[in-house]
């Protein structure tokens, strides 16, 4: 037997999702797209308008054929906010964004995170940020967190993280996420960057792309104190993030690093400060480009986004990657791959964490259909 309350939640979620994707639709267009009758659609829209989630816009032009003017419906972009956080061993970056990705709040704070205190530190951070952002007077849609490591996203388990000293699995879902009344979702940092491109550029409907995250602040040499650059790769196939058979997709070690004892992704002279030595930096990026060229050509990737510490790379990395693509090609061609720096830049991971929440809450309706626990609803704010 169908549950009217559950059906109402699902259909309300579908309306919100459709308006988020298409920005503005009339009641009739919504009903047609979602295959709902006009009466049901009217009831759903009226309820969402009363809650302040949906609002009416200017009337649509009926066109040269005339006829009745249709009132447009849009999401109230000033209603929700989403929190995205990037966790590092020595700091965090937090962003609050609206449904369109406009930044409402941003901060980077030098606070360290390690496995031994991770649960308490993360819970305290989320609570503190929620208190600080109460001034926005907007419902929080959820919290997305990105960090370096191997993350089983489906089970919400940290399998391993060198930078945060996780050598044993940690049940993030049980120890952290379950303690909050809203969704808190953990993802690998490079995959977060990829999510940011998929969700906030949804109108481009990208299919196959690669997101490369290059950062210079997550690891430091124990002896010299010099930053050790890190690389993570996120793959998008058919518009979805690919995580691999064992949640290890995107873990990177250069094919030129033949030292089986080496923990470095790219072999570097540890006595060189790579961010201050242009020759060393260019050599490092050249090796990354040669690795990427093989993946891009072999997988026929259409778009490449470069995120992270991009300011130091803008002047030379795109040309370097195009040259590597040509050398790696049997046709001696650069191909049709579009190479661009992520518009999210330094905030790519925290932005992507927020994007992951949007995808789970607005794009994926499976939890609404499958879960029996009311607290499991993604659109928990509708559960009244």
How would you describe the overall organization of this protein?
- The chain is an alpha/beta fold.
- Helix content is 33%, strand content 22%.
- The chain folds into three domains: 4-75, Winged helix-like DNA-binding domain superfamily/Winged helix DNA-binding domain (Arc Repressor Mutant, subunit A), CATH 1.10.10; 81-192 and 348-370, Nucleotidyltransferase, domain 5; 205-344, Nucleotidyltransferase, domain 5.
- A five-stranded mixed β-sheet has the order 6-5-4-7-11.
- Helix 2 (27-34) crosses helix 3 (38-51) and helix 6 crosses helix 9.
- The protein contains ten helices and 16 strands.
Rounded mean pLDDT is 83
Count up the domains.
Answer: 3
CATH architectural category of the largest domain: 2-Layer Sandwich
Number of helices: 10
**Strand count, sense and closure of the main sheet?**
5 strands, mixed
Give the topology, please.
Elements: H1 4-22, E1 25-26, H2 27-34, H3 38-51, E2 54-60, E3 70-75, E4 81-87, E5 92-97, E6 103-109, H4 118-132, E7 140-147, E8 150-152, E9 157-160, E10 170-171, H5 172-175, E11 184-188, H6 189-200, E12 209-215, E13 230-237, E14 240-242, H7 278-299, E15 303-308, H8 317-328, E16 338-341, H9 348-363, H10 366-370
Parallel strand pairs: 4-7, 7-11, 12-15, 15-16
Antiparallel strand pairs: 1-3, 2-3, 4-5, 5-6, 8-9, 9-10, 12-13, 13-14
């Amino acid at each position: 037997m169908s549950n009217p309350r559950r059906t109402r939640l699902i259909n309300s979620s579908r309306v919100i999702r459709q308006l988020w994707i298409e920005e503005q639709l009339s009641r009739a267009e919504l009903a047609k797209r979602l295959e709902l009758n006009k009466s049901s659609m009217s009831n759903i829209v009226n309820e969402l308008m009363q809650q302040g989630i949906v609002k009416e816009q200017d009337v649509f032009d009926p066109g040269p054929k005339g006829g009745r003017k249709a009132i447009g419906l849009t999401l109230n972009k000033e209603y929700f906010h989403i929190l995205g956080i990037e966790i590092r061993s020595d700091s965090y970056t937090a962003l609050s964004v609206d449904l369109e990705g406009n930044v409402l709040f941003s901060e980077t704070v030098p606070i360290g995170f390690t496995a031994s205190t991770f649960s308490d530190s993360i819970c305290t951070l989320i609570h503190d940020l929620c208190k600080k952002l109460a001034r926005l007077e907007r419902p929080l849609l959820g919290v997305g967190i990105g960090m370096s490591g191997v993350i089983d996203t489906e089970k919400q388990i940290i399998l391993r993280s060198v930078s945060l000293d996780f050598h044993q699995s940690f049940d993030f879902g049980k120890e952290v996420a379950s303690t909050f009344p809203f969704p808190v979702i953990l993802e690998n940092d490079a995959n977060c960057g990829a999510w940011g491109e998929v969700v906030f550029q949804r109108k481009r409907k990208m299919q196959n792309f690669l997101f490369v995250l290059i950062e210079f602040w997550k690891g430091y040499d124990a002896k010299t104190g010099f930053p050790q650059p890190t690389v993570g790769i996120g793959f998008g196939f058919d518009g979805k993030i690919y995580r691999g058979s064992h949640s290890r997709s995107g873990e990177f070690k250069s094919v030129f690093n033949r030292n089986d004892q080496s923990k470095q992704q790219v072999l570097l002279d540890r006595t060189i400060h790579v961010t201050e030595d242009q020759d060393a930096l260019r050599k490092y990026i050249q090796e990354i480009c040669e690795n990427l060229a093989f993946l891009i050509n072999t997988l026929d990737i259409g778009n490449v986004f470069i995120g992270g510490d991009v300011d130091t790379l803008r002047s030379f990395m795109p040309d370097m990657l195009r040259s590597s693509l040509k050398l790696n090609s049997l046709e001696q061609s650069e191909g049709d791959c579009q190479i661009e720096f992520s518009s999210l830049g330094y905030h790519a991971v925290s932005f992507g964490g927020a994007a992951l929440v949007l995808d789970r809450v607005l794009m994926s309706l499976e939890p609404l259909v499958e879960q029996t626990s009311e607290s499991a609803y993604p659109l928990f704010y509708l559960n009244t």
